User: What shape does this take?
Amino acid sequence: MIWSSLLAFAALTQAVPQGAGGGSTMLRFGCSQIVVDRIDPLVNPDAIPSPHMHQVIGGNAFNASIPSTDVAGLASCTSCNFADDFSNYWTANLYFKARNGSYKRVPQVPNRLLFNDKFTTQTQGGFVVYYVSDGKGKVTAFKPGFRMLVGDATARAKVGTGRKSQSCFRCYSGPNFGGDNAAPCQDAKLDTETLPSGQCLGGIRSNILYPTCWDGKNLDSPDHKSHVAYPTGGPHTFDGSTTGGACPSTHPVKIPQIMLEIVWDTTKFNNKADWPADGSQPFVLSTGDTTGYSQHGDYVFGWKGDALQKAMDGGPCQGAKCANLKVLTPDTASGCKVPSRYIENFDGWLDKLPGV
Assistant: This one.
């Protein structure tokens, strides 16, 4: 596999997306949370509130609507490690449903140290972002105005055969990220397409992987998906295909693979006396979904100038200090925030999920 060499080199037990290794470039960086809010400028533009709650990272141009323009020119700060990334990334939140029927949001925790990347261990909320090229041919960075969506917030069951390409969950079997010893979504014993059914002593990790092929023309599409595609050889699965496959003729342009990696601290909710009486798993995504199939990731590109293209061209390079990209301190990045557009209680104990 393309990135087995990277795993061997790192001798780590941390997730690394498909395609990293050899002559590849892998940007890996943390981003603090800029807001938790019920708005969605991609799927529900201008709607305040949107149907469900999201957690958001990136630049402070995030709003109920984001113009299809150069987002980097609209933002004045970013919560990400790389100073030139004003993109926005947002995903579903995770909630714990107690036996008495009340809900509590599960907090995110920073990822472990990797490649001397101290930044991701000091993020506040938020999650880790990866951009990967496989080192096999030209990878074209996204253009201003580009946006895309992976996953389906309405899904409650397996859709087709491609689900493994989109997201997976890992139940940490012990503290300090115990059980994190293989790349995401490759090991059927470690990774599941659904939320874990049992207690996770070290928390739950969620990985969301985006398509790696573009039609070369459209910066968006009505469903925010049709302008991008996964490789013809099959997107990455539990049993081993990679992002290095050929792009289909309809989407011939190879783009960086984006992977989002969220770690939820479920350890505070491991008291079985608080779980449902029937023993079923008590966690629910902010979409109202207990299966996990509705996990999704929204993306609006916002890198400044040609910084991302230079980074992807500058490999081999791995980590959060590569490609001569300017980096921010954790304090500077975590200070970037946006105001909530729809004010409601989302962190206390709730009688029902926001919007659901």
